Amino acid sequence: MSAEPDGPEDRLRRFATIWSRAVFPVTSTSSTRPEFEERLLPLARLLSEALRARSFDADAGRAAGAALVEAHCTDPEALSRTLDCVDAYLVLYCGGDGDREGLLARSARLQHAMAAGFAQALRERTLAEQEAVARAALEAQGVVAQALHATEARFRAVFEGAAIGIGIADLEGNILQVNGALRRMFGLSEQALRSRKVKEWVHPDDAPQTWRLYDELVSGEREHYHLEKAFYRPDGTVLWTNLTVSLLRDADGDPQYQLALMEDTTERRLLNLRLRYEATHDALTGLPNRAFFFERLEKALGAGEGQRFGLCYLDLDGFKTVNDSLGHAAGDRLLVEVADRLQACATASGEMVARLGGDEFVALTTGPDTERTVDELAARIMNALLAPISVDGRELTVRGSIGVVEGPAGERSAAEVLRSADITMYRAKSAGGNRFELADPEADARAITRHGLTTALPTALDRGEFFIEYQPLVHLGDGSVRGAEALVRWLHPQHGVLSPDRFIPLAEHTGLIVPLGRWVLEQSVRQAREWRDRHGGEALGPLRINVNLSPCQLTHPGLVQDTVEILERSGMTPDALCLEVTESALIGADDDLLKPLRRLAEMGVDIALDDFGTGYSNLANLRRLPVSVLKLDRSFTQSMQRFPADPVDLKIVEGIVSLAHSLDLAVTVEGVETGAQAEQLRILGCDTAQGWYYARPGPPDRLHELALVDATG
User: Which residues contact 202 (CB under 8 A, 6 or more apart)?
Assistant: First the structure.
């Protein structure tokens, strides 16, 4: 086996060689094959550059197709072989290291452009020949009228030697003469052709204006007309032609004959149909693709009053696992079987199934009663997926999640309908999958808002749209302010002030929580330093700042280093900082996760176990966690807002406080809203509290005021 070419030019040359060997046998040229290869080399370079260009340029493909005609590659087989060669070898030899899927798609578009350029060039060349023949025929009108005229020999040479079919008939439709090309196109003898009148050549696919134009021509109202027309051959096959019919007049200007010029376009039409099919159908499953489905959906949405539509958007659950475990070939066979089952579900009038890509399929139903039929269609699809699919000797269970959208035509665009179906499908998947859900406009709006917030998050931090409010931590024994919890807010340009529960989960999902958390920590520590500097520090006592850490921040390798640098830059000691971690984040935590918290605790930073009591951690595990504070969840103390308090809740809180103190842990309570609640918690031995009873979260100056009031009176 010979080695692959090394450089781009060698690979380009190899592609041109393969191309020339494929096309040369069906090319009418006096050149040798090496000479023909040199002629194809610039076209190969043009295609290679178009394949790897930054943006797609269809002109390159059309130019290459037209150049084939100029190189005498006019046989339809030459185009077919060229497209096969480009499809198989262009990406392989000229694609370089680019994205293979993208290059294959670009190659397919180049093939379509080449076919279009080839067809256009061939058409222009044929029309030029037709015009030359027509001129010769018109010059020979005298020959037809005067059989003994001296120029008859020249006309006969042009007439018989032409590559296109030529026929002459009188104005009554009697066929008088046909040339050899026309006889070969129809597969009939001259006598058989002359035995039929023009109006007998009717075909069901004739354009509506075909015979109206004919009548106008033979009556002298029209000089010529041109259209595409089909004819039946004797064997029942169809001959498609580009037909030009002209009126021939005698020396006095009176209509006398009709002249028909026919170009056989059957092969070109079949090629165009093939290219159209490939452009609108999925190569793997044979189903309509995204582009074709969009056309049908837009047509359904543009239907008249009283018409409705129903759409089922299907995504297979766990399909990635099949690809990862059994390979993509097995995944492809699974998709083909699923496509066959889906197609069997949508056989009624107005129904269709398409593959959007990957493991995503859509089914569409239209008509006046889609409120009922779309539910039935979704149920049929779910039932069709029940039976296991055999792939490589394995029985695979297929599950799917379906989003269903139904409504009247004319109210929404195709993009809006698909977006709603996609959102609904993911809602079905989030609910456990293997089910279908109906679209909910309110749920769609929430999902769109979430998406908008997610995309706006990265720039929001750069634009300074986040700010921090502080809620005081109050000592239950003497009522003094001991510190504050930092609570981040987002001042969104459209939605106003957003609380953390609206954007923190999105920040965690996108990874922005790490830079956002670092910013909150830096701003909060800096604020603690300002409190100390502005109010004398010692007079107010040590005000500690509490900052929340998300699970994503716990696993970030820069957590300890960032915290140390922030404290050093601000000049604050570690004991001025308390980092709050939710109990659920530390359930089952291993030593690697706890290591950064232990390092921070050893430095003097307090670690608080937030939302304590909401998880399922063993109380005995508290001994292995590097925490110094328990923050008791508000669910334990809500009953204390009423009098008398639930005795069971009192016993639970008393037990937790006793256990925490025995482990040298302080206890902070969240959600304190009444004086009676605060007093009861003080009696139970809780150390500090926060809640609306003391103050709502607010700007840093408000904490100064509360602390100063406490210090002075």
Answer: 211
User: In this predicted model, what pLDDT tens digit does every residue of 115-153 receive, in sequence order?
Assistant: 888 888 888 887 877 776 666 656 555 444 454 454 566
CA distance 85 to 71: 17
Residue 170: both structure tokens together: 């009188």
User: CA-to-CA distance for 434 and 619, rounded, in angstroms?
Assistant: 38
Cα separation values, 510 from 454, 462, 504, Å: 8, 16, 10
Least confident of 148-152, 221-225, 700-704: 148-152
Cα 206 to Cα 201: distance, rounded to the nearest angstrom: 10
398-427 pLDDT per residue, tens: 899 999 999 898 888 898 899 999 989 988
Taking Cα atoms as reference points, which of 446, 629, 473 lies closest to residue 543?
A: 473
SS3 assignment, position 316: strand
Q: Which residues pair with 177 in a beta bridge?
A: 168
Residue 16: name the closest of 36, 31, 37, 46 by CA.
Answer: 37
| Secondary structure of 322-358 as H, E, C letters | HHHHHCHHHHHHHHHHHHHHHHHHCCCCCEEEEEEEC
Give strand pairing partners of 470: 486, 698
DSSP-derived 3-state class of residue 227: strand
For residue 18, pLDDT beyond 50:
yes
Angle between helices 675-684 and 647-662 (to 10 degrees): 50
Q: What angle do CA 66, 182, 217 make, to 5 degrees?
A: 90
Q: Pinpoint the alpha helices (H) of 387-440.
A: 414-430
Q: Closest Cα to residue 606, out of 470, 463, 483, 444?
A: 483
Radius of gyration of the chain (CA): 41
First CA to last CA across the chain, in angstroms? Answer: 95
Q: Tell me, what's the pLDDT at 618? A: 57
pLDDT one-digit tens code per residue, 355-385: 998 999 999 999 888 888 999 999 999 999 9
How many whole angstroms separate alpha carbon 402 and alpha carbon 441?
16
For residue 134, the model assigns a pLDDT of 63
DSSP string covering 261-303: EEEE-HHHHHHHHHHHHHHHB-TTT-SB-HHHHHHHHHHHHT-
- Residue 98 pLDDT: 75
- In degrees and rounded to multiples of 5, residue 495 shows phi and psi of -95, 0
Q: What are phi and psi of 439, to 5 degrees?
A: -60, 140
Q: What burial class does residue 408 get, using C-beta atoms within 10 Å of its C-beta: 0-12 exposed, 13-18 middle, 19+ buried?
A: middle
Whether the full predicted model's pTM is greater than 0.70, yes or no, is: no
Fill in the DSSP letter of residue 399.
Answer: E
Say yes or no to pLDDT of 643 above 70.
no
pLDDT digit string, tens, across residues 544-594: 899 999 888 888 899 999 999 999 999 999 999 999 998 877 777 778 888
Alpha helices per DSSP H over 439-512: 441-462, 500-510
Q: Please state the φ and ψ torsions of residue 221, each to the nearest 5 degrees.
A: -80, -20
Query: 543 with 470: CB under 8 angstroms?
Result: no
Measure the CA–CA gap between 84 and 108, rounded to whole angstroms: 11
Burial of 53 (0-12, 13-18, 19+ CB in 10 A): exposed
99-100-106 Cα angle (round to 5): 90
Check if the beta carbon of residue 513 is closer than 8 Å to that of residue 523: no
Rounded CA-CA distance 87/69 in Å is: 19
